[in-house]
Amino acid sequence: MASAPDSEELPSFDILREIMEHYRGTSEFLTLHTEVKHRPDTARMVASILSGYHCFFQRGGAWVYDAKKLSQGFDRSKRKYLRSRLFGG
Q1: 55-75 b/e with 16+ CB inside 10 Å = b?
Q2: CA atoms within a 13 Å half-sphere pointing along the CA-CB vector of 41
Q3: Contact by Cβ (8 Å): 7, 15
Q4: Is the pLDDT of residue 26 over 70?
Q5: Buried b (16+ CB within 10 A) or exposed e, 2-11
Q6: Do the beta carbons of residue 31 and residue 23 sit within 8 Å?
Q7: Rounded-to-integer distance, Cα 79 and Cα 83, Å
Q8: pTM over 0.85
Q9: CA triple 36-76-54, angle to 5 deg
Q10: How large is the average pLDDT for residues 12-26?
């Protein structure tokens, strides 16, 4: 991902999704944060994305990606808890 010329153009959500697909849908937070570290994203941004979208959830200390829930999008009930430049906080 980091060597892809268009990786800076992709939204952080798409990068996390691709990373999770690479790891067969399951990864720890530190691994995910390390993978996107070449971007100006902070740990808070990665955590916000993981906790805010229906397609990401935690199971046994690891984050899981479920492509079947991708169409559900962002969980708007969690928006008030998020603070980042992506969500206007």
Answers
A1: bbeeeeeebebeeeeeeeeee
A2: 25
A3: yes
A4: yes
A5: eeeeeeeeee
A6: yes
A7: 8
A8: no
A9: 55
A10: 90
Beta strand ranges found along 5-80 (DSSP E): 26-27, 56-59, 62-65
Token pair 């603070």 in the structure block, residue: 83
Structure tokens at 60: 């046994």
Could you tell me what percent of the chain has a pLDDT over 90?
31
Contact 2, 38 (CB under 8 A): yes
Cα gap 69→85, rounded to integer Å: 25
